[in-house]
Amino acid sequence: MKILITGATGLIGNELVKQLLAKNHSVHYLTTSKSKVVNKPNYKGFYWNPQQTKIDESCIYEVDVIVHLAGANIAKRWTNAYKQEIIESRTLSSELLYNLVRKHPNQVKQFISASGTAIYPESFATVYDETTTETEDSFLSNVVKKWEESANRFQVLGLKVCKIRTGIVLSNVGGALPEMVKPIKMGFGAAMGNGKQIQSWIHINDLVAMYCFAIENQLEGVYNAVAPNPISNQELTTVIAKTLKKPLFLPNIPHFVMKLILGEMSYLLFSSKNLSAQKIINNGFQFKFPKIKEALANLYS
Ligand SMILES: NC(=O)c1ccc[n+]([C@@H]2O[C@H](COP(=O)([O-])OP(=O)(O)OC[C@H]3O[C@@H](n4cnc5c(N)ncnc54)[C@H](OP(=O)(O)O)[C@@H]3O)[C@@H](O)[C@H]2O)c1
């Protein structure tokens, strides 16, 4: 199959491209950096600028599936201007793709969009799955709602729409994990707040395998991309320290301290999301790293 990917140069996109090429799929990708456009056999880059509604329309040629990963990184200070960028980088880009598919002759059958777990209500004991209609009222939850609405529009064009609500992606080259590992490696590690907040995580290899699974099985609807065994922030901090063979002796860091440092973005460290992986498992997907100990050992041993 030929897959058009946005955000292909990011943390998840990079790994997804590797996997798709290894499976003999061919990849077109859209990038906002002209310097990242390369043209290799089965891997062809195209320039776009969603803010200026610019897109190289030839990117759609012979494409079967679109995977929309692009979006401004949420781990930067949430000023009002940056909040706007977080939203628009996902929705305007989706709209540009929508207009491309609508206007340009094509054979696209499926639209897969990255999405987030922030949409779910805060939870400790209650495990939420994809059937829940309850949502949280927070900035990031509202981003996810707008992001998913922009993906749903593709249904009007007769495409299958799949939304991958992704938890904390564990990778040793980017994202949240190296930021957690850094202080622990230096001997200054500590859990956040009371450490009870539940972190629904997924190993990058499992996430990428899930995207491939969604493509190869033409999945439709919402799927949580989280491992079947979420853990508390306290446990996660402890397992990281054990994996790195580092001591943990400092007291937990109070919420107000992180709020002073990070502002509203401290939400990322303190929100609690206890989420189910059952739907994708029921569809036949097998996790390679269902447990945190093995996932971290794979990344850091
Ligand atoms: N990593 C996680 O833990 C996690 C968890 C939940 C959801 N997600 C979501 O999954 C998607 C991919 O995540 P990731 O970790 O791979 O992100 P990433 O490493 O930050 O990469 C995102 C890519 O999006 C493109 N991009 C950045 N700013 C943009 C803008 N203003 N307009 C258009 N494109 C822009 C960039 O590609 P170019 O430079 O090539 O244009 C960038 O490489 C994101 O939407 C993210 O929110 C990630």
From TrEMBL:
A Pfam family this protein belongs to? Answer: DUF1731
- DUF1731 domain residues are 253-299
Q: Provide the transmembrane region boundaries.
A: none
Q: NAD-dependent epimerase/dehydratase domain: which residues?
A: 3-224
Family under the similarity heading? Belongs to the NAD(P)-dependent epimerase/dehydratase family. SDR39U1 subfamily.
* Record-given protein name: TIGR01777 family oxidoreductase
Q: Which organism is it from?
A: Flavobacterium paronense
